[in-house]
Amino acid sequence: MSRTLVVTGTDTGIGKTVISAALVQALGATYWKPVQSGLEEETDSAFVARMTGRKVLPEAYRLQLPASPHLSAEAEGVEISLAEFALPEGAGTLVVEGAGGVMVPLNRRELFLDLFAHWRAPVVLCAATRLGTINHSLLSLMALKDLGCPVVGVLFSGDPEPEVEDTICQFGQVPHLGRLPHLDPLTPVTLAEACAAYVDLATIRMALT
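The structure corresponding to this sequence follows.
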């Protein structure tokens, strides 16, 4: 059976896919993004494959419109079903990336949060260190914990904001898993080096045992 780590975020555009790639690389994991909304640019799966060289599972849904999955699906006359999201067997360590934030709808009845609660797999919450992150992070942590999702901790991205980061982890009562800085250039080598230097991989690995 797979050892699964869920990577979700407080919002979209916060570096969640870069963090997912770093964890796939560091853990020697397989990557799966169940829903891809927006196909005009490089998809998250293609980016992770390019950054890591690791196995990437095909998405359950590939939707053209870059929007919330339920809206993208409706634009194509599709309804997303949670039955399509059984965790793959035999994938070894599996990193699963959600779309957008914790409360993003999959359809008109269910959120990504409901899927995470069904899986009961350990969750890493990604949060950018930009303005507004305290509120977004604490609300996301509250939602995850209210549905019984096992939260490993918060992994930040962006410039250092130690007081903000500590505030989130203190009020959220979760471990600080490190902060991945902006990388220029962003390459497989710089990503691996930054992950090894800045991310608490020991705590994440322990959650998978």
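The chain has eight helices and eight strands.
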